[in-house]
Automatic annotation (TrEMBL):
The lineage of its organism: Bacteria, Pseudomonadati, Bacteroidota, Sphingobacteriia, Sphingobacteriales. SUPFAM superfamilies: Winged helix' DNA-binding domain. The keyword Cell cycle applies. This is SMC-Scp complex subunit ScpB. The gene is scpB. The keyword Cell cycle applies. It comes from Mucilaginibacter glaciei.
Amino acid sequence: MENIEQHIEALIFASEQGIRTEEILYCLQAAFEHDYTSDEITTHINNIRAKYQDESFAVEVLKINNGFQFLTKKKYHTTISLLQLQRSKKKLSQAALETLAIIAYKQPVTKTDIEQIRGVNCDYSIQKLLEKELIAITGKSESVGKPILYGTSGLFMDYFGVNDISELPQLKDITDNSSTIGQAAE
């Protein structure tokens, strides 16, 4: 049998999003008609992760959103951000970013709730976020009219490099007090 770790590496590399251990296990069992265990796959993944910790590699294998992905190491982020800036033709508008932030922090949330917070119609922003697969429809509210509920998607988690919404910065950590009037009372 060929080196199983190379097949696992190939699966992680070829996956557009994080690939879960269960998916790797399924692919390998189907390809080789061999009953691998989840523990064996985890051991092989850990070996691959250790291999890419070497400084000679610009990439590493990280676990994000319960899946594994090849990502560049942090010390190369400045260089890569320049490339992304150059290629950023599909940026999110300020309105879409605001809508995405509301959905991320208030999910599950209805369009009406978002519009009450923003004070403007959000149809276009929600449509664009759905097209980019950064948000998803998570169900219907039990309130009158049963409006659609929105929440963040797995792609949102991948894009922002978080495993769970609780890993996002807390609102108190990012509050800007520079627009207050007067001096704070002692």
